[in-house]
Automatic annotation (TrEMBL):
InterPro entries registered for this protein in UniProt: AB_hydrolase_1 (IPR000073), AB_hydrolase_fold (IPR029058)
Name used for this protein in its record: Alpha/beta fold hydrolase
Alphabetically ordered keywords of this record: Hydrolase
Boundaries of every AB hydrolase-1 domain copy: 21-246
Pfam families on file: Abhydrolase_6
Keyword Transit peptide applies: no
Entry's Gene Ontology molecular function annotations: hydrolase activity
Highest taxon, organism lineage: Bacteria
Length: 263
């Protein structure tokens, strides 16, 4: 694990909840993904909120060797952050981060977990085929980002959002988006996929976005089937449901589940 990683912290307001929350970002992103809405909102409800950037992402070191990082390296990043926390967190992981969380659970336990628009245990093949037939321009732009190119704003909108979004928000996402490790992409395409039979099974919420262009509902259903758990969907939301103008329904569903589980 490259160290030290970028870690953001938003302390709880009022009476703190029993377990902190650790937010895990997906591909092309960083811990910044959670700062706009989710971290302050959940902290306002009493949760101690943390988010970190994987090696080579955000302000974490390793940008100069991004393509050397594997999914196993990202699992090591996650494990290191969890070890440094005084209380075991509930991990809320998005997209690629959800696959990293599944791999983590092969060798370690957690009090609870949320898979949010997660890459399924079967990997990226199904999602890639869906993009080829439905939004080939978005797939082209994602491949261009991997190679260090810049995406088009229209493709950013199609990939991340369903609701109408401001140009200011699109520009913000555009400025933060970055290449992803090609090695990690290959791992998610079949070289290092999760093995559900080996996973610990903490209380888990599997949540998708009904209008997700990148991890469509059929892929979320695959995750539920592989793990033997029900899945739920947030209506009128795209892949970046934590950034959508109407982001609250997703946050509220997670908060209700956390409260019901006693977290």
């Amino acid at each position: 694990m490259t160290s030290p990683l970028e870690v953001f912290h938003t302390p709880p307001q009022g009476q703190p909840r029993p377990h902190p929350l650790l937010f895990v970002h997906g591909a092309y992103a960083g811990a910044w993904l959670w700062q706009r809405h989710y971290m302050p909102w959940f902290a306002g409800l009493g949760w101690d909120c943390h988010a970190f950037s994987f090696s080579g992402h955000g302000a974490s070191p390793g940008q100069d060797r991004l393509n050397s990082f594997s999914i196993a390296d990202y699992v090591a990043d996650l494990a290191g952050v969890i070890r440094a926390m005084p209380v075991a967190p509930i991990v809320i992981a998005h997209s690629m981060g959800g696959l990293v969380l599944q791999k983590y659970l092969e060798s370690a336990d957690l009090p609870g977990a949320v898979l949010l628009c997660s890459v399924p245990p079967q990997g990226l093949l199904g999602a890639t085929l869906s993009l080829i037939f439905s939004r080939p321009n978005v797939l082209f732009d994602l491949n261009r980002i991997i190679g260090g190119g810049e995406p088009q704003l229209d493709s950013v909108r199609e990939a991340l959002f369903h609701q109408p979004v401001s140009r200011a928000l699109l520009n913000e996402c555009f400025m933060h988006m970055q290449p992803e490790s090609m090695r990690a992409v290959w791992d998610m395409s079949g070289f290092d996929l999760p093995r559900p039979a080996r996973m610990r099974r903490p209380p888990m919420l599997i949540l998708g976005a009904a209008e997700d262009a990148l991890i469509p509902p059929s892929q979320v259903e695959q995750t539920g089937h592989a793990l033997g758990l029900p899945v739920e969907f947030i209506a009128n939301a795209g892949h970046a449901l934590m950034l959508e103008p109407h982001w609250q329904p997703g946050a509220e569903r997670i908060a209700a589940w956390l409260t019901a589980e006693g977290f």
